[in-house]
Write a structure and sequence with these properties.
- The complex is a heterodimer of chains A (1026) and B (90).
- By secondary structure, chain A is of the alpha/beta class.
- Helices cover 27% and strands 23% of the residues of chain A.
- Chain A has seven domains: 1-102 and 184-200 and 368-447, FAD/NAD(P)-binding domain, CATH 3.50.50; 104-183, Alpha-Beta Plaits (2-Layer Sandwich); 201-365, FAD/NAD(P)-binding domain (3-Layer(bba) Sandwich); 458-581, Rossmann fold; 593-704 and 852-926, FAD/NAD(P)-binding domain (3-Layer(bba) Sandwich), CATH 3.50.50.60; 718-848, 3-Layer(bba) Sandwich (FAD/NAD(P)-binding domain); 932-986, Alpha-Beta Plaits (2-Layer Sandwich), CATH 3.30.70.
- In chain B, strand 1, helix 1 (41-50) and strand 2 form a beta-alpha-beta unit.
- Chain B has a domain at 36-90.
- The longest helix of chain B is centred in the middle third of the chain and has 10 residues, at 41-50.
- Residues 1-11 of chain B have low confidence and may be disordered.
- With 90 residues, chain B is of the alpha/beta class.
- A three-stranded parallel sheet of chain B has the order 2-1-3, with helices on both faces.
- Classes of the chains: A alpha/beta (1026), B alpha/beta (90).
Chain lengths: 1026, 90
């Protein structure tokens, strides 16, 4: 049948949140046509509603906005908003989807997004985006930065569409874009694969009347609080409570609302609430230092990379109080609007405490239409509505060719959603590799204007960034000052420079004011420069005629409350940028061919999965493993918590790798040398094999911690979980024995202050195995926080149902083990019994954590990759680039990145393969324009550069003189710094440009300047300081 | 590759007669010019902002593609034009 299927090189993605956008961009970048179908009027999903993200406190909108813009202007992505799939026919490789799209009543081609219609519309309704905390109009855009920014008319509330009168929007629209005759449409899309990422709903706590939501006005959900914190939210980022707009001081978060409650609501853990509550408490304190946050929790599940450290900081530096208590009721104090909570505190006392505001940390749950939705795509779902996927292929549904990603697959946070987006893209690429590039259109950019001989005309755009900048820096004053600087043709402020209207404004200014250089004063060039460079390129300017002045990260955010000084500094920063920009020159960038071959370092599950995915995408792969066989750490595991056979998985992957002609396996060797750059690496293995390749996937894995705690090694009855699993599988344990397990051995305390993420699952898995085999056996687990996050929670419940006992301990009162001959006893303080307990046990099982692989240091040195303080590799961005490295062409997967479960490793490996595929699928890669230029006429061939360059770009040519290989050059400029003849100049960092910046910033430092004199308080008016 | 060159590192000032030494005003703050590597120190400065860590607004940063790009002339020029300290981080 496969032979008959005509493959379609397009993919339909249902849902346009961060996961959907990631999948769309990866597929579009590697030559596939993508249709995004979103039922909302704009893309962005849940992440667009968030204020900041944990654990870095990055602004969510600032991260997602460039992605939204990128997706909306990608030539290979078509966005269908307000649309739903109503039917799917066909098979993997060739699907036909029926799409039904609602009427928008506004013509997106005519609409400029000016928003006059919205201002004039008389009808106000509660806004969905602000979770009902503010009003929107009947003609509206979902949020200020919405993409697309075409307004939409809500037919349920529009006065004309409901009552036949008004038409104010139509009257005032300057571009005649309102179309009341608009009708819903139905159309068909053809696609080779479908990716489902519609996301989840948040739990509606109204039904739990005892918590007071929708009853007491000062009880809000966490998503509402997220909007309250947001600069573009209902209160413009000021923390107010809904009843009386007072600034709340005592704020309480109640955890697990709608989660972990099998009797009343949902049995699963929503995975993200512990961290988002911690984040909200921290941000609330940052907004208002008088806020006193309390988090009422059951189990602190801060299990992700660097999460425990973040929660510790919240507790120690932000005074966030964590109170382990179950809250059964919230009541309002008559008259004041304050709320009181009755709970049993840590000392067992019944306490009544009053709060100004209460935030319910609501969990995630499948959307109400989950059943119908699954029916349309003909995929199987579980009893709750989650799609059924195997733990070992977590993104494949029961229908081939239809993949899932993000929270729809199960509760998870942003980076895991992004990972699955890339993983789903990789899986779609594997089906459709033969049709890559067949259905896309070529990008048409306007020709570049020659500006070489023109006098500089600089345009300066100063960004408010909502209030991120403007609450500290007087942006109008910055713009006014900029306008006075030499060669500045125009300066103005915009609300969000990175939003589509901001970018359009920049393009408009280039045309209207005849600009030939542009400065945006907003955030860091590290994230936003490429976006703006593209914008000015679209307006016909060379993209290197741009500079980004960082007045947010390096000014407004670090000088909060010092408005005057911050404004002065912002003016100085912009002046420096102007001084440089006037001297910027056009740069013509080269492109280089790509070797369509991948090298994967590490032959564990991550490496094997990545290698297979890349091979299925039609690229040759070299898989390098230092041990004698493939399998890695997983080779020591028998089953997953969910019961899938890991042995079988490894066996199957081994067979697939053996059978695949595109994969070459190198075992028992290591990489001894790599040189080159993205698209063109050359590596030499320790057996002297030379490999040319275009990308590197680092999947070097982790290692098991060997404990020295609790007398490990002194008795054969003290085991690790892994050893126990082996003995259980071999049936070689005494059947009705007493087992005691201790969690967090070597984890979550200094010097290894991180959660190893797998140990709780391991303990529960083995405990269930013991109880299933011998119900009389006794199992007691001593734990700090049981972290069976997400859908794993049901196994925790199962273990409890089977009679496994759980005893909590605190880090400062660990269980003590004494053993006398063959008998052990464990002494521990039980905080619930408030008493010491002593347990005699036959076996002591230590739940030992993970450590980074010892080779990480060496690999890190070799490829110049940074590691976090625990020794795990640091990704390019913890939220949005979770499998990329800052160095182009190098990707990351598995335990090398941080502790994680097997299904997460598999998703990440597929994601790394997908990201690598976006590079390997290009025939040519554009080389960065930021490189050193060598002037042979000035060069004296003194060889200073030749010795200093770490990349060996300068070489001795056939004339015996120094020449420069620009392809190898990374633009670091060491040559330029060292060259006595100044024969090297780095594009956009040339000596004249840097000197101009120094002169600008030191302008007022010069002796005898007016400002300097005024600081001299001596009786003599003449300054003699120098 | 971290280099530090601040005003404090320069050679001790020649001895000056006591009456010629002016008292530094209490509110005086040094103006510092930092040269930061795009990949690390500039990223660290961004991180300081993201973490809302506060420092004196008298610190201004010039981004370099790498601190290896630093030319001694930059440092000399800054001092010559009256800056109080230069901080090179990368």
């Amino acid at each position: 049948m496969e032979a008959e299927t005509k493959l379609i090189g397009s993919v339909v993605i249902v849902g346009a949140g961060i996961g959907g956008m990631q999948a769309a961009l990866d597929l579009a970048d590697s030559g596939f046509m993508v249709h995004m179908v979103s039922r909302d009027s704009a893309v962005g999903g849940t992440m667009a509603m968030l204020d900041k993200t944990f654990p870095t406190g990055d602004c969510a909108m600032c991260m997602i906005s460039p992605r939204m813009v990128e997706a909306s202007r990608h030539p290979n992505i078509k966005i269908h908003t307000m649309a739903q799939v109503t039917g799917v026919s066909g098979v993997a490789g060739n699907f036909t989807l029926m799409i039904s799209q609602k009427a928008r009543y506004v013509d997106p081609i005519k609409c400029t997004g000016c928003g006059i219609c919205e201002k004039k519309c008389p009808k106000k309704v509660p806004g969905e985006f602000d979770q009902g905390l503010s009003k929107r109009k009947a003609i509206f855009s979902l949020f200020p930065q919405a993409v697309p920014n075409t307004r939409v008319i809500d037919p349920d509330h529009c006065l004309y569409l409901t009552k036949g009168r008004c038409r104010a929007c139509e009257k005032f629209c300057p571009s005649d874009a309102i179309n009341f005759e608009d009708t819903p449409s139905e159309f068909e899309l053809k696609a080779g694969a479908v990716i489902l990422c519609p996301g989840l709903d948040t739990y509606d706590p109204t039904i739990q009347q005892e918590l007071g939501y929708n009853r007491w006005p000062n009880v809000v959900t966490s998503l509402q609080f997220e909007r309250i914190l947001s600069a573009s939210g209902p209160f413009r980022g000021e923390i107010k409570r809904p009843s009386d707009s007072k600034h709340p001081k005592k704020i309480a978060w109640i955890q697990c609302v709608g989660s972990r409650d099998p009797h009343n609501v949902n049995p699963w853990c929503s995975s993200v609430c512990c961290m988002y509550a911690t984040k909200q408490a921290v941000i609330a304190r940052e907004h208002d230092t008088e806020v006193v946050p309390t988090i009422f929790y059951n189990e602190k599940r801060t299990f992700g990379k660097d999460f425990d450290k973040y929660a510790d900081r919240a507790r120690d530096e932000y005074n966030v109080r964590y109170e382990r208590a179950m809250i059964s009721a919230v009541n309002e104090e008559a008259g004041s609007g304050d709320l009181f909570i009755k709970y049993v505190d840590g000392q067992g006392r019944m306490t009544n405490e009053t709060f100004d505001l209460i935030v319910l940390s609501v969990g995630l749950q499948p959307r109400k239409d989950a059943l119908e939705f699954a029916g349309i795509f003909d995929i199987d779902i579980d009893q709750f509505g989650f799609p059924i996927t195997s733990r070992l292929s977590p993104i494949e549904t029961t229908r081939p060719g239809i993949f899932v990603a993000g929270t729809y697959q199960g509760p998870k946070d942003i980076p895991e959603t992004v990972v699955q987006g890339s993983a789903a893209a990789a899986s779609a690429m594997a089906i459709l590799d033969k049709r890559r590039g067949c259905e896309i259109e070529d990008v048409a950019l306007p020709p570049e204007k020659e500006t070489g001989n023109e006098k500089p005309r600089v345009g300066v755009v100063v960004c408010h960034c909502g209030i991120n900048i403007s609450q500290t820096v007087d942006v109008e004053k910055v713009a006014e000052n900029a306008a006075k600087q030499p060669d500045v043709a125009h300066a103005e402020t915009v609300m969000y420079a990175c939003a589509p209207d901001g970018q359009n404004r920049i393009k408009e200014l280039i045309r209207e004011k005849g600009l030939n250089r542009v400065i945006v004063a907003s955030c860091t060039p590290r994230t936003h420069e490429p976006l703006f460079q593209e914008t000015i390129r679209e307006a016909g300017l060379n993209k290197y005629l741009f500079d980004l002045a960082d007045i947010r990260e390096q000014c407004s955010w670090c000088h909060m409350g010092q408005n005057e000084l911050a404004t002065e500094k912002a003016i100085d920063i912009v002046n420096m940028s102007i001084a440089k920009t006037r001297l910027l020159q056009e740069v013509k960038s080269e492109s280089v061919p790509v070797t369509p071959v991948a090298m994967v370092i590490g032959g564990g599950i991550a490496g094997m999965t990545a290698a297979l995915s890349l091979a299925e995408q039609d690229f040759a792969v070299h898989l390098v493993e230092k041990e004698k066989r493939l399998g890695g750490l997983a080779a020591g595991i028998f089953h997953t918590l969910e019961g899938d056979s890991v042995r079988e998985l490894i066996r199957r992957k081994n067979l697939q790798i053996d059978d695949h002609p595109a994969i070459t396996v190198h075992v028992g060797v290591e990489v001894s040398k790599t040189e080159g750059y993205v698209g063109n690496f050359k590596s030499t293995l320790s057996d002297n094999t030379a490999i040319d390749h275009g990308v590197i996937v680092i999947a070097s894995g982790g290692s098991e911690y060997t404990p020295d705690e609790y007398d490990y090694g002194k008795s054969e009855k003290i085991l690790t979980q892994r050893q126990l699993e082996r003995l259980l599988a071999a049936n070689s344990l005494q059947a009705d024995a007493i087992y005691a397990m201790i969690q967090c051995v070597g984890s979550r305390e200094k010097p290894f202050n991180y959660c190893s993420r797998i140990c709780c699952q391991d303990a529960i898995k083995n405990a269930i195995a013991i109880k299933n085999k011998t119900p009389e056996a006794q199992v007691t687990i001593f734990y700090r926080d049981l972290r069976t996050y997400g859908l794993r929670e049901k196994y925790y419940t199962k273990a409890r149902d089977l009679g496994v006992r759980f005893v909590r301990y605190e880090a400062d009162s660990k269980p003590e083990v004494t053993h006398d001959g063959p008998n052990f006893s464990i002494k521990a303080y039980d905080p619930i019994l408030e008493n010491e307990i002593v347990l005699s046990t036959d076996y002591l099982i230590l739940s030992t954590g993970l450590r980074p692989n010892a080779v990480n240091d060496k690999l890190g040195e070799m490829y110049k990759l940074t590691r976090n303080e625990d020794g795990y590799f640091l990704e390019a961005h913890v939220k949005l680039r979770p499998v990329d490295f800052p160095s182009e062409g190098i990707f990351l997967a598995g335990l090398a990145h941080g502790p994680k479960n097997l299904d997460e490793t598999i998703s990440q490996a597929l994601a790394a393969a997908g990201r690598a595929g976006t590079v390997l699928s290009q025939s040519q890669l554009a080389v960065s324009g930021i490189i050193a230029k060598h002037d042979r006429d000035k060069c004296m061939s003194c060889l200073a550069c030749f010795r200093a360059c770490p990349f060996n770009s300068p070489y001795i040519d056939e004339d015996g003189r120094v020449s420069h290989n620009e392809i190898k050059c990374t633009g670091c400029g060491i040559c330029a710094g060292i060259c006595p003849a100044k024969a090297f100049q780095v594009n956009s960092f040339s000596d004249d440009q840097i000197t101009a910046m120094i002169d600008s910033v030191t302008e007022n430092c010069l002796p005898h300047s007016a400002e300097h004199r005024s600081t001299e308080k001596s009786d003599d008016t003449k300054c003699n300081c120098c | 590759m971290t280099q530090n060159a601040t005003a404090a590192d320069t050679a001790p000032a020649p001895e000056v007669e006591a009456e010629n030494i002016k008292k530094t005003p209490d509110d005086w703050e040094a103006r510092i010019l930092a040269f930061a590597c795009h990949y690390c120190a500039f990223a660290a400065a961004d991180l300081a902002g993201v973490m809302r860590l506060s420092y004196s607004p008298n610190v201004k940063i010039i981004r370099l593609s790498c601190t290896g790009k630093l030319d001694h002339s930059y440092v000399l020029r800054a001092f010559e034009r009256g800056i109080d300290g230069v901080f090179v981080a990368g």
